[in-house]
C-alpha cells in the first residue's frame, strides 16, 4: 500500500454552511444527437439515467457533503450504466480494447487527480480521486494506474465486464469505414440499423453548502481510436478544471481540439481574469474550438450557483439539480 497521502480540505472552519446554494450539473456527452433519430423509449431511458445521477449527487450535497463527493457519486452512477461512454458503456479502440480515462479537481485546494488508459478499473473516477488524495502525483496511466487502483482497494473488473454488443458493432462499422468516431456520431452513422442508442463522455460539476466547487470527467474515448490515444478528459485544464475563484468546468467532444485550446482552463480564465459572464465564456471557448475544426460541449458552474450548459453539436445529454431537489434534464437543442 502506498502511504504518501494528500489531505484535501473540502471546507475550512471559517466557512459557514448554506444548504440553499447547493447545485449540481452533469453531462453525458455531446454529439449528433437528434430527436428524430432517438426512439422515445431510448430517450426516456437516458433521462432516467441522468435523473438517477443527479439524485445520487444531490443526496451527498443535501446531507452537507463535499462537492468532490457529489461529483464522484454522480459520475459513478453514469459509469455503471451501459448508456454512456464511460465505465461499463465504454467504446472500443482499434484493437478491440476498452481504454478509459478520468480526472477530478477540487476548487478549494486546486488539487487534482487523473488516470488514463485503464482497462480493468470498474470506476475510473474513483481511481482519479485516489490519485489526488493518496499520492503525490496528478496523472497515472495504464498498468501503473491499474496497479495503484488495486493497492488502494478499488474495485477491479475483468475486461469482459466492459463489453457490450452495440459498442462492438460500432467498432466494426468504424473500421469498415476507416473512421475514428465521436461516439454519438458513430450511432448517427448507424441510425438506420437497430442501434439507436446514443452515448457519451460523462462529467459533473458541483457546488457544496460551504461554497466549494469541484469538477470531474470520465470517458471511454473515441470509437476506433488508436492504441494508447488519450483525449482531453484526464487532462487538467483541458477536459476538467475547478477553481473557487472562478468556475468548475467539465468538457465533452473532440478531445484533441479541447487539449489544443486548453478548453476548461480557458473558460475559467475568462471568468476570473476578464470578468466574462460564464455563459459567454463557454460560448467563446466553443468558438475557439470550432475555429480549429472541433465541436462539443461544456458545463460550467460558479461559486454563486450561476451555471451554463453550452454545446455546438446536435445535442448534449445534460441535467441540473439544486436545493429544492427537482431534477431537470435536457438532450436536444429544445430540451
Description:
With 335 residues, the chain is an alpha+beta fold. It has one domain: (Glycosyl)asparaginase (Glutamine Phosphoribosylpyrophosphate, subunit 1, domain 1, 4-Layer Sandwich), CATH 3.60.20.30. The chain is 32% helix and 21% strand. It has 9 helices and 12 strands. The chain has helices spanning 40-62, 67-79, 124-134, 142-151, 165-176, 183-189, 255-260, 263-274, 278-291, and strands at residues 23-31, 100-106, 112-118, 139-141, 202-207, 213-219, 240-242, 248-253, 296-301, 307-311, 315-322, 328-332. Strands 4-3-2-6-5-1-11-12 form an 8-stranded mixed beta sheet. Strands 7-8-9-10 form a 4-stranded antiparallel beta sheet. Helix 3 (124-134) links the parallel strand 3 (112-118) and strand 4. The radius of gyration is 18 Å and the shape is globular. The termini are far apart. The relative contact order is 0.20. Residues 1-5, 7-13 and 186-199 have low confidence and may be disordered.
What are the SSEs and their pairings?
Layout: E1 23-31, H1 40-62, H2 67-79, E2 100-106, E3 112-118, H3 124-134, E4 139-141, H4 142-151, H5 165-176, H6 183-189, E5 202-207, E6 213-219, E7 240-242, E8 248-253, H7 255-260, H8 263-274, H9 278-291, E9 296-301, E10 307-311, E11 315-322, E12 328-332
Parallel strand pairs: 3-4
Antiparallel strand pairs: 1-5, 1-11, 2-3, 2-6, 5-6, 7-8, 8-9, 9-10, 11-12
Helix pairs in contact: 1-2, 2-3, 8-9
Radius of gyration (Å) = 18 Å
Q: Average pLDDT value?
A: 89
Low-confidence stretches: 1-5, 7-13, 186-199
Largest beta-sheet details? 8 strands, mixed
What is the helix fraction of residues, given as a range? Answer: 25-40%
* Number of helical elements: 9
What is the rounded distance between the termini? 47 Å
Q: What strand line-up does the widest sheet have?
A: 4-3-2-6-5-1-11-12
Number of beta-strand segments: 12
Q: What is the correct CATH architecture?
A: 4-Layer Sandwich
